[in-house]
Specification:
With 331 residues, this protein is α/β, with parallel strands linked by helices. It has 14 helices and nine strands. The longest helix has 31 residues.
């Protein structure tokens, strides 16, 4: 298929590389020059604007940092008569990939999405013409629902990803797909090449995002707690190598945390999930719950920890930087 990828953060680049490797024709756009060099070298074409990137595309995949960025880019796609040219807007940000790692399996009580099938034709604007826009960004459920009204022809689906950039490149990520079934299935060849597991979350676009936010909340909480455990063990003078080995072996430490243990232990925070975006994701799931009359006190505490780390100079560092709050206080 002819696929456009908007946003060349860690996840956007991984998506583009995976699809190029599977034989898709890929065109990419990112406001900041130079971030797409890896995928250009791999065979992608580069566009100077979102409109140019999406011209003649079958699918448009957005991987952006937050709600504001997604709304800005979608508004530009919806502008009538928008043609190719230099991009004048502020940088809307790119998604550094918000996910814990390869999905270990399928969850009970939920059905995987089936493969591609004929378009049911029941969705507004689902006829030939404009491409289907799929948002892979981690945004609020309400934003995802609103985007359907902005997408050209109403052709919009939600497709947040469970898994980090390397899982995407390796074809081991999981896709949470939401929206009209005919539109979701229209991009079946993309999903089959991109995801090891697909879950169809229903026609409510917000449901796919709620599942994703719950996943990220568990990841953020787990990293924060493991950071405290590591800091406590180091303060107590435990053997660091043995501490790390036991944390890898203990069943109480989730597999998704294993690939961050070394970074927490040794203070290397060059990973791909920015602390400020981790705080944003926890805030979003707390707001979802509060909109239904349910307060999540632990979520708000976790959010506060990541906000504090971001405010103390770790904003663009990996979420493992939350451990530095403890080290700074201990001196």
């Amino acid at each position: 298929m002819r696929v456009s990828v908007l946003g060349m953060g860690s996840m956007g680049r991984a998506v583009a590389l995976r699809l190029l490797g599977r034989g898709h024709a890929v065109r990419v756009w990112n406001r900041t020059p130079g971030k797409a060099s890896e995928v250009i070298d791999a065979g992608a074409a580069e566009a100077s604007s979102p409109a140019e990137a999406t011209r003649d595309a079958d699918a448009v995949l957005m991987s952006l940092a937050d709600d504001r960025a997604v709304r800005e880019v979608m508004a530009r796609l919806a502008e009538p008569g928008t043609g190719p040219g230099p991009d004048p807007s502020p940088d809307p940000g790119t998604d550094p990939a918000t996910g814990p790692g390869p999905d270990p399996g399928t969850e009970p009580g939920s059905g995987p999405a089936t493969g591609p099938g004929p378009d049911s034709g029941t969705e507004p604007g689902s006829g030939p013409g404009a491409p289907v826009v799929a948002d892979m960004s981690t945004v609020s459920p309400d934003t995802s629902r609103a985007l359907a009204g902005l997408a050209p022809g109403g052709r919009f689906v939600a497709a947040p990803i469970i898994g980090g950039p390397q899982a995407v490149v390796d074809g081991q990520a999981t896709g949470l797909l939401g929206g009209g079934r005919g539109l979701v299935d229209r991009l079946g060849p993309v999903w089959q090449d991109l995801f090891a597991v697909q879950w169809y979350c229903g026609d409510d676009l917000g449901s796919a995002l709620t599942y994703k936010l719950l996943n990220n909340y568990l990841l953020m909480s787990g990293v924060a707690v493991v950071a405290e455990a590591v800091a406590a063990g180091q303060a107590a003078g435990l053997d660091e190598a043995m501490l790390g080995d036991l944390l890898l072996r203990w069943p109480t430490v989730a597999p998704a945390l294993h690939n961050r243990l070394d970074d927490i232990l040794h203070g290397d925070h060059r990973g791909w999930f920015a602390t400020r975006l981790g705080a944003k994701d926890v805030r979003l799931i707390a707001e979802v719950a509060e909109s239904k009359g349910l307060r999540l006190p632990i979520a708000r505490l976790v959010e506060q920890r990541y906000e504090e780390a971001a405010g103390r100079g770790w904003s663009d560092s990996d979420i493992t930087a939350v451990v530095e709050l403890l080290r700074e206080r201990r001196g």
